[in-house]
Write a structure and sequence with these properties.
- By secondary structure, the protein is α+β, with helices and mostly antiparallel strands.
- Helices cover about 40% and strands about 20% of the residues.
- It has one domain: Nucleotidyltransferase, domain 5, CATH 3.30.420.100.
- Helix 3 runs parallel beside helix 4.
- The termini are far apart.
């Protein structure tokens, strides 16, 4: 694995952050992944290895409203709202934020801000 390209740099940041962040039953991990065209988020309990809630710009719920523009800030805001709503339905209020090696900027920041506004505590 080359660490001198963009993907290698993200992997190094991801490994460094994952050493410190661990999702538990009381405070699961909110993991964000962004691709060029879409954005995805999951709430994961690392003790059991289960995904408790998920939302992505590819899901049928967002396809009519987002269309093909799943990779912009508006889409990230709606995914942040959705993950917060689904977490509240499951009784989750506090999470640990995992930016997954991506810089806390742009779409990742919009998703986290929207999730905070709609009730999740980081």
């Amino acid at each position: 694995m080359s660490s001198f390209n963009r993907a290698g740099s993200r992997r190094r940041r991801q490994k460094r952050v994952r050493k410190k962040i661990r999702g538990s039953t009381e405070r699961p991990r909110l993991c964000v992944f962004r691709s060029k065209k879409h954005i995805y988020s999951q709430i994961i309990d690392d003790t059991t290895g289960r995904t408790l809630a998920e939302a992505s710009s590819l899901s049928k719920e967002f396809a009519p409203s987002l269309g093909r523009s799943g990779g912009n800030k508006k889409a990230a805001q709606s995914i942040g709202e959705a993950i917060a709503r689904r977490a509240r339905e499951k009784g989750i209020k506090r999470v640990v934020f995992d930016r997954n090696g991506f810089l806390y900027h742009g779409r990742v920041k919009e998703l986290s801000d929207a999730a905070r506004e709609h009730g999740l505590e980081f």
